[in-house]
Specification:
- The chain is mainly alpha-helical.
- The protein has one domain (3-100).
- It has helices at 3-18, 22-32, 37-52, 63-71, 76-100.
Length: 108
Amino acid sequence: MSADSQADLDRHFDWIADRLPEKGARFVRWVRQPSSRWVRIPLALLLVLGGIFSFLPVLGLWMLPLGLLLIAQDLPFLQRPLADGLSWGERKWMEWQNRRRPPGDSGK
C-alpha cells in the first residue's frame, strides 16, 4: 500500500464529505474509521452488487464507484487505481466548471 494513494483517497473522501449534508458527512466519516470495518465491507459489497444490477428500478450505476471507494479502504490494490480515477474525474469536473463560467468570473 502506498501512503500517497491512501492520502489521495483520504483527500477525495474529505472532498465528498464536505459537499454532503451534515448527517451524510458524519456517516461518511464514521464509516471510514477502522472500527467501522464490519459495517463498511458489507455495505461496500452491497453497493457494488447494486451497481452491477443498475438496470433494475431503484438501483443505479452510482452505487458501483461508491462501493469500490468504500472497499478500497480495506483492499490496498484498489487504492491507486481509484485515487487516479478520482483525480482524473476531479480534473475533468474543474475543466467543465471553468468552461461554463462567463469570461471575467473568478468562480468565488
